[in-house]
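Subject: complex prediction, re-run

Hi both,

The earlier run crashed halfway through, so I resubmitted it with identical inputs.
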Amino acid sequence: MRVQSVCVRKMPGVATVLAAMLLTGCAAVGDTLHDAADAGVAAVASSSLALELHADGRALTPLTDTVLADAITELTDASTTVVELTPATASEEQQRDDVEHALRTALDAVTGARAALARGGAMADWPAELDAARAQLEEAAG
Amino acid sequence: MKKLFAVALGVLTAIGGFVDIGDLVTNAVVGSRFGMSLAWVVVVGVVGICLFANMSGRVAAVSGRATFEIIRERLGPRAGLANLGASFFINLMTMAAEIGGIALVLQLVTGIGPMLWMPLAAFAVWIVVWRAKFSQLENAAGLLGLSLIVFAVAVVMLGPDWGELAHQAFVPTVPASEQPTTYWFYAVALFGAAMTPYEVFFFSSGAIEEGWTRKDLGQERVNVFVGFPLGGLLSLAIAASAAIVLLPQAIAVTTLSQVVLPVVQAGGTIAFCFLIVGMLAAFFGAALETTLSSGYTIAQYFGWSWGKFRRPAKAARFHLVMIVGLVLALAILLTGVDPIAVTEYSVVFSAVALPLTYIPILIISNDPDYMGAEVNGRAVNALGLIYLVVIVVAAVAAIPLMIVSGAGA
Amino acid sequence: MMKSPTVRAGRVFDAHLHLLDRQVLDRDDTPITTVDDLELSDVPFDTDLDGVEAPVIVSLLSGAVLGTRIFGGRPPSSRWHRIPWSALAELGTALKLDAAADDLEVSWPERWVREHIIGRIPGGRHDPE
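This time it finished cleanly. Structure:
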């Protein structure tokens, strides 16, 4: 009998801890979008920096390629996170769409730049595309 | 002259061997997100590891017994086993992180991988553990690791606003873009990266490998008290390079390729080459140390024959444990997990496990049975108790901070 | 209780403090095992102990007894890996034996791993270069 009552008394405590963990773990939609956009900005900025250094002759091609490949992974992961969100309000949904669009633009720009790098040809407009994508992400983050 | 050379070698290998992938990544992440406002943690961590390593080295040199033998004997087999389990698990994570780091560096050089490089890296670590002499592997990895000084050179070449950096360091504030819980989470992570538990097992077992006695305590003190702080300066240089180049561009470090960019910006391809050599040496050296630590801890708990100074046939189970450990670490990596993520978790868990190794060492270095007249002085004990509090606070706070801050997201 | 005539004067040790969980070394200082438990000689059960000799340590134990020491229970005495007490030469912070590691029954796991695994890998029997 005594053991049973102790177990019952312990349960609410455990439940509270779990609830607290879930609450803090589940960030608000707005926060997640902000984090995803920040991750996107970091990825695009790294790519721009790497391409700049490559054009200067400071960065070797394998390094630059690795930076771009890592950026693509980051952008893809961020996109996946954003797509899986369930916005509660219309404005959240709008923000989600903006961020998703911006991430997609960024992903296209980085992929295109990486392909141009692999071809060994001129980088053409890709640096400008990356800058535009970055601006779009910063705006979508709010 | 020969004595001077030996001293210099000891110090230089201590500096070069100080930085591992945990230090490199954590400092770069912190620099890119918080600037220099967590520099004080590096200082606290360096003083702590000096205290800790010195005590464990002294225990080994004076008593002739290595850490885990004494942990079991003083704490009993049950507490010793719990300690062993936790230490082995975290050691395994760190092994995986270092080997993953080697693969990532090879990817930076070739553009290929990193999964393809991981088996090769693990095999290379094993071959060196199998055949090379202890002092050779220590010296080679340590001296080549000095190449990481390129970070400090890069910081100078970038011509930063020193006033701004100093201000961030001496007047720490949480940047507007970050939460206080994330700040403290990284404080704990940085602390765990500086005070890695495997360092203690390795240092004390290494003292026995090299046959240290009371006579060598002077050399050991110089290695620790000169070498480790200079290594700490290197950590600060890594953070500074990220703070100067990456922070203004909102590039929060999440990959090794980003860590490299500030050095490349400062010094181009030549600096890059030095950096590659330095990183390979540092990560390879740390991979060797963690692999050996996995062998030391298990062999010393069970009382098996161990040591690189014995031929493998004479320390058979010791070598078997290390082979199994390397296979497990490789298996973890081949699941495709990001080595940087493994690194970040390994430093946090290192902080959690720190009391398990620190408390026994503090107790044993006060035990006249093992230490004779060389027990801790009052100043060391006072400092030791202060650090005991710091370590326990960090260990207790680590997991809650990790949950609340979303592991620093 | 009268002291048995076989008890000699000497140093006094606490078996728990100074024997259990101590490293056992062979005559060349090679580690063999840690003392996991001790085997004591039998004392008659449920009778008057007048005139009976105090239990003496028969052997040091290693192996499966560690598990039972931590978790409870007792493996059958045929499964104990024994180091006879008479093999002990020195008692300090570690226990030194008067025998070579390979001569002892208790070192069979080490010899097994050596024969079947480590010895088979190239370079296993050589000194580090």
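The radius of gyration of chain A is 22 Å.

- K.
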